[in-house]
Specification:
It is a single chain. 75% of the residues lie in helices and 0% in strands. It is mainly alpha-helical. α4 packs across α6 and α5 packs antiparallel against α9.
């Protein structure tokens, strides 16, 4: 019986992922989950009390997998600078995933503060991945630098979202690749043209 419930719960989460990819947060409804899994709508409530509970479960399952993907990308690099670049590009690729975007959008609106704090903690765990690379580069305050680097990543994500539907106010459309390149350059070289001239 317990195994059956685990399988049904996993099926519901798979259906939720598919719905988020296909239609964003508006598509994630209990009737849709029921239709995708062949369960009665009342049966869905036996597993999740609300849409927010579905989103929280997705975060609990998927965030560690996403972190593992980013960590694997970093591990494949031979240099500290390469690991930092992989970290930045990995997070930007993750942010471009429609399922991740939808989960984050729903979590910001529907989850309670305790659940949002758990999600923030999971994201903060990603910052820890880059601390060692910054230490290897000889950074004097790697934890502070990692936190600030996360701010660069989040700014790049917002920039990409801003231009997804085209430029605003006469600004040119910026590709996701150009935004990622700029974020990596800022992470590795700062604002100076070559990252060396501070004068």
């Amino acid at each position: 019986m317990a195994e059956h419930r685990q399988l049904q719960r996993a099926a519901l989460l798979d259906a939720a992922r598919t719905l988020l990819i296909e239609g964003g947060m508006e598509a994630l409804t209990f009737p849709s989950l029921a239709a995708r899994t062949g369960l009665a709508r009342s049966s869905v409530y036996e597993y999740f009390r609300s849409r927010a509970a579905v989103v929280e479960a997705l975060c609990e399952v998927d965030f560690p997998l996403w972190a593992t993907e980013i960590e694997a990308g970093m591990a494949s690099c031979d240099t500290a600078a390469g690991r930092i670049e992989a970290y930045v590009r990995g997070q930007l690729a993750l942010a471009d995933d429609p399922r991740h975007r939808a989960v984050m959008a729903i979590s910001a609106v529907e989850l309670d503060e305790a659940a949002r704090e758990r999600i923030r903690a999971a994201h903060a765990g990603l910052v820890g991945l880059v601390v060692q690379a910054l230490e290897d580069l000889g950074h004097e305050r790697p934890r502070l630098a990692a936190a600030l680097l996360q701010g660069v990543v989040e700014g790049a994500v917002r920039r990409a979202e801003q231009f997804t539907a085209g430029g605003r106010g006469g600004c040119p459309v910026e590709s996701a690749e150009a935004i990622a390149d700029a974020a990596v350059a800022l992470a590795l070289h700062g604002l100076a043209p070559q990252g060396l001239d501070r004068g």
